[in-house]
Amino acid sequence: MKGKFITFEGCEGVGKSRQLKMLQDYLDKNNIKYYLTREPGGSQVSEQIRKVILDGKNVSMTDECEALLYAAARVQLLDEIIKPKLDNGELIFCDRFVDSSLAYQGKARGLGYQFVEKINDYALKNFMPDYTVFLNLPPEQAFLRKGGVDKTDRLELSGIDFHRKVYQGYLELAERYKDRFIVIDASGTKEQTHEKIKNALIERGII
Prior knowledge:
Layout: E1 4-9, H1 16-29, E2 35-38, H2 44-54, H3 63-87, E3 91-95, H4 98-108, H5 113-119, H6 121-126, E4 131-136, H7 139-146, H8 160-176, E5 181-185, H9 190-203
Helix pairs in contact: 1-9, 2-3, 3-4, 4-5, 4-8
């Protein structure tokens, strides 16, 4: 029996990590088994790649290099962890996945969706999520909520125009993949957002 694969997406500072922690608490309280991972990262090799990607000192990294590093970390995580767990029938939640690459590198970096799709062909053909929870909040509001930009995070330092393009990319993806995307209005309190996410997952038989 194949498991379920659910991903979480959104702009920087939208509250994904907090919402995933609140979801964890709910799942633990209700004895629902799951596995939580993240991108880039989630495995020993992928976590090392993550450090290279996000290191604020790596200002000379090209956009193409960035996209390829994300794809490399993704393949490692898929083969080492996600595939075996899905084959075992497990429920997997992942903080970011290939939609991040499409929004960040494809749209915001200007590499184009086709380039990103080509280098992520393995993931797109074999491991598309059953559902993607998109926390919908414009970057201006997201950064205001989190208290500004993290000066050590290379992506957060990319500037507000970049993050506006990321947001636009997500909106385009949500329109393209209406059946897969669960669009959650994240403008309310963290408790309100949590309830929306929980109810959406219950309605679809995920939890």
